[in-house]
Amino acid sequence: MDLNGKVALVTGSAQGLGRAFVEILLKNGAKVSLLDVNVPKGEELKAVFDQTYGPEQTIFIPCDVTSEVQLKDAFHKTKEKFGKLDIVCNNAGIANEQDWEKTITVNLNGVIRGTYLAMEIMKQQKEGGVIVNTASVAGLEPLTLMPVYTATKHGIIGFTRAMATASTICKSGVRLNALCPAFVQTNLLDSVIDDDQLAGVVKTMTIDIMKRIGPLNVSEVAEAFLQLVTDESKNGAIMKIEKQGGANYVQFQFNTELKTAPK
Ligand SMILES: NC(=O)C1=CN([C@@H]2O[C@H](COP(=O)(O)OP(=O)(O)OC[C@H]3O[C@@H](n4cnc5c(N)ncnc54)[C@H](O)[C@@H]3O)[C@@H](O)[C@H]2O)C=CC1
Ligand SMILES: CCCCCC(=O)/C=C/C=C\C/C=C\C/C=C\CCCC(=O)O
Q1: Which value, to the nearest 10 degrees, does the dihedral of the CA atoms of residues 76, 78, 82, 85 take?
Q2: What keywords tag this UniProt record (predicted)?
């Protein structure tokens, strides 16, 4: 897929991975709608992008992904502003085991609602679209320190795979994929390391492991994200990104009977 002239929407895009995804889309000629709950950071970033790419290439929309009204409104504003919607990245996420219900609402409900809104718009377009949901390696194997975060990321992968199959069967023209980075150097990672409430021995052990593995840079993950967005042959694929092994598609065993359309 050539990104020139394409329209994208990225949630949680004021910093970290979301910001890097926006930047790689802009570099490749797409227009991007930036959604984030952090309004000062979002506005500041929009001003930075205006300098490099021009004010018409982006729009910043204050949006909390846990609000049905705000998310719906942001999708419709994006379509109104740019005329279509080709690429959606449901990326906003937190790692707060104390406020675990909020973690579920942001990480899972936000991704599910964002996916449904994207599908609704994209399936009406002749050229379809692509949805990339940000999961994590914690969606493939458990993070002992963060059981609820782990649950949300497993949920994102299951949801994305099911929706991708349904999308193929219904011939909606929409591709769905999930991205599973290992540790990435962002504020989210720092917030977990600095969280004094987390259990001592597990925390020491996990920080040790993390130091040994070494965190990815956001740009390494953004390159993998770009690959997923542009490769039109990979509907339903789940991509894992690790510091040592790089980006690879995860192989799953599945029951092919469940993937067959009724005759
Ligand atoms: N940093 C890491 O090691 C990894 C992060 N991830 C995932 O990547 C995604 C992005 O995380 P990072 O860039 O690391 O974190 P970050 O904390 O640097 O950025 C997250 C962004 O999401 C926004 N956000 C938070 N709650 C929101 C809400 N309710 N509505 C709208 N925006 C909201 C924040 O304001 C922030 O701008 C998350 O889904 C995270 O789980 C996945 C694997 C590894
Ligand atoms: C290897 C899983 C990578 C998941 C990264 C992620 O989405 C967010 C991580 C945020 C903080 C992680 C902090 C400590 C975890 C370190 C090592 C995990 C060791 C495995 C275990 O048994 O817990």
Answers
A1: -80
A2: Fatty acid metabolism, Lipid metabolism, Oxidoreductase, Prostaglandin metabolism
